[in-house]
């Protein structure tokens, strides 16, 4: 075991799982924990180790986002279950942590934490979110979560939110309101400064087939609304099929921005799946939203989307875009004010190690 | 020296196609090897006064020995091997039925090999099916 230095806390953030949601939420929390240390509230230079196996992780500049006090361990996404378990075990048991903070999966993505966590002598925190009730029942999570010293519920209803160890916060966001780019600057980041047309931002995230679908929809919007709408397709991992589909449309561009939230005020409408970050980011910034609820094993995206934000077919999206963006006289995005739940989460987490 | 078990989770590793760790909380203890096992890996013995369970590994061993004994006594067997266990139709025993029993007492088929037999290529989907919903088997889920 390598003891941590006395200089500050060393937090482990377990952000295993596919997609970008776990990483983005863990990055938001990491920023909060590192800031707590920077502003003198914590007795030294805190450090973060963030553990991920997302196939998106290689393309995300997480180290740039978090700075030198953060280490990102990227477990290869294609490893088998057993190989993944071995890697997690190696990481968790070879350092002494101030606390282990587990995002979403109480028992780990492979159930491996059930064997590992009881052997680690430090406080444990669960970022507790809504989960498929069949999973909760099958693995008796109601009993298992008692292993955690704190359950932090990040802004959405969750099964054990009334647990004695649970604290609920507003949604966690990777930027505070004052850190968002102004609409002008955000349009600049989106390469949409050349005119004043509204901008439809389509997020290419999730599985490859979902990215392909969103890319197709973005192209169709650009094609059908040429001269009326700018379309930006935000993608951080370009599947091979996108390389040979660069049909040139004057109002369509593919852009890589992460975290995208920083540039959200440049969007007139945000089109995505029904994941935690895109839904909560659009709400916080007051940007109209269209989401396609994706089928996931644990996350129930259909519960996150309100009926008026939910689309399942292109024609629904098209009429929504036409109505909200092209025919509306409402000026969106004039002021932004929201509470970022990260600050409250950091206080709740810090309290278990004080 | 008796084997020591981790009492915090099920210690049985038997799976449908492949052995793998089971991290479910234990419900019972195998009466033979004292291994803590979850309800999926506990197989109740019927007929006794008190509840008694065997783990999947012990019941497989037991069944193998019983099979050998009955093979020796062939002709006297009534073919009902599974009489005193409650769970021979569970997936853990399917392999044994197909490859073991079909030669002598098959109640499945007399065909020795089937072109639609499972192969390793089917493993991924079958492993998911083994876990019901596929929880804790897909490392890319969210």
Structure, briefly:
The complex is a heterodimer of chains A (354) and B (142). By secondary structure, chain A is α/β, with parallel strands linked by helices.
3D structure, described in words:
The complex is a heterodimer of chains A (354) and B (142). Helices cover 32% and strands 17% of the residues of chain A. By secondary structure, chain A is α/β, with parallel strands linked by helices. In chain A, helix 1 (21-38) packs across helix 13. Chain A contains 13 helices and 12 strands. In chain A, strand 1, helix 1 (21-38) and strand 2 form a beta-alpha-beta unit. In chain A, the strands form 2 sheets. Chain A has a 7-stranded parallel beta sheet, with helices on both faces. The longest helix of chain A is centred in the first third of the chain and has 18 residues, at 21-38. Chain B is an alpha+beta fold and 142 residues long. Chain B is 26% helix and 7% strand. Chain B contains 3 helices and 4 strands. In chain B, the strands form 2 sheets. In chain B, strands 1-2 form a two-stranded antiparallel ribbon. Chain B has a two-stranded antiparallel ribbon with strand order 3-4. In chain B, strand 1 and strand 2 (36-37) form a beta hairpin. The longest helix of chain B is centred in the middle third of the chain and has 17 residues, at 56-72. Chain B is globular. Residues 77-83 and 94-131 of chain B have low confidence and may be disordered. The chains are: A alpha/beta (354), B alpha+beta (142). Chain A binds chain B through residues 16-19, 21-22, 53-55, 77, 79-82, 84-85, 104, 107-112, 114-115, 118, 132, 134-135, 138-140, 143-144, 275, 296-299, and chain B through 6, 8-9, 20-21, 23-25, 132-142.
Give average pLDDT of chain B, whole number: 67
Tally of helical segments of chain A: 13
Question: How many DSSP E strands of chain B?
Answer: 4
Beta strands of chain A, count: 12
Uncertain segments of chain B are 77-83, 94-131
């Amino acid at each position: 075991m390598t003891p941590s230095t006395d200089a500050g806390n060393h937090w482990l953030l377990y952000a295993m799982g596919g997609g970008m949601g776990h990483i983005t939420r863990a990055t938001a929390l990491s920023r909060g924990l590192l800031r707590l240390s920077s502003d003198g509230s914590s007795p030294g230079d805190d450090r973060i180790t963030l553990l991920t196996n997302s196939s998106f992780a290689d393309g995300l500049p997480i180290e740039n986002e978090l700075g030198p006090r953060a280490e990102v361990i990227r477990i290869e996404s294609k490893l088998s279950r057993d190989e993944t378990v071995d890697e997690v075990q190696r990481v968790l048991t070879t350092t002494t942590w101030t606390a282990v903070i587990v995002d979403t999966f109480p028992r780990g993505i492979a159930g491996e934490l059930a064997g590992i966590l009881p052997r680690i002598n430090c406080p444990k925190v669960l970022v507790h979110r809504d989960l498929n009730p069949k999973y909760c029942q099958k693995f008796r999570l109601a009993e298992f979560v008692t292993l955690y010293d704190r359950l932090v519920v990040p802004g959405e209803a969750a099964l054990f939110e009334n647990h004695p160890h649970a604290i609920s916060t507003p949604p966690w966001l990777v930027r505070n309101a004052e850190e968002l780019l102004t609409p002008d600057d955000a349009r600049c980041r989106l390469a949409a400064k050349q005119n004043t047309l509204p901008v439809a931002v389509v997020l290419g995230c999730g599985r490859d087939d979902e990215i392909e679908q969103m890319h197709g929809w973005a192209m169709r919007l650009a094609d059908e609304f040429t001269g009326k709408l700018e379309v930006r397709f935000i993608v951080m991992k370009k599947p091979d099929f996108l390389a040979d589909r660069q049909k040139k449309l004057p109002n369509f561009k593919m852009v890589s921005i992460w975290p995208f939230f920083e540039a959200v005020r440049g969007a007139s409408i945000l089109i995505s799946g029904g994941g935690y970050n895109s839904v909560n980011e659009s709400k916080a910034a007051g940007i109209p939203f269209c989401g396609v609820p994706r089928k996931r094993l644990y996350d129930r995206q259909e519960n996150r989307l309100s009926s008026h934000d939910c689309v399942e077919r292109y024609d629904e999206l098209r009429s929504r875009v036409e109505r909200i963006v092209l025919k509306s006289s409402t000026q969106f995005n004039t002021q932004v004010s929201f509470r970022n739940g990260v600050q409250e989460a950091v206080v709740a987490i810090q309290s278990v190690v004080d | 020296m008796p084997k020591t078990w981790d009492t915090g989770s099920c210690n049985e590793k038997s799976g449908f196609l492949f052995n793998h760790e089971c991290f479910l909380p234990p419900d019972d203890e195998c009466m033979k090897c004292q291994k803590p096992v979850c309800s999926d890996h506990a197989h109740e013995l019927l007929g006794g006064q008190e509840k008694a369970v065997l783990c999947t590994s012990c019941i497989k061993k037991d069944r193998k020995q019983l099979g050998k004994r009955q093979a020796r006594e062939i002709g006297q067997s009534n073919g009902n091997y599974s009489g005193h266990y409650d769970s021979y139709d569970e997936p853990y025993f399917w392999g044994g039925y197909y490859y073991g029993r079909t030669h002598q007492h098959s109640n499945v088929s007399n065909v020795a090999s089937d072109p639609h037999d499972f192969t390793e290529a089917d493993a991924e989907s079958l492993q998911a099916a083994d876990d019901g919903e596929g929880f804790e088997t897909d490392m890319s889920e969210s």
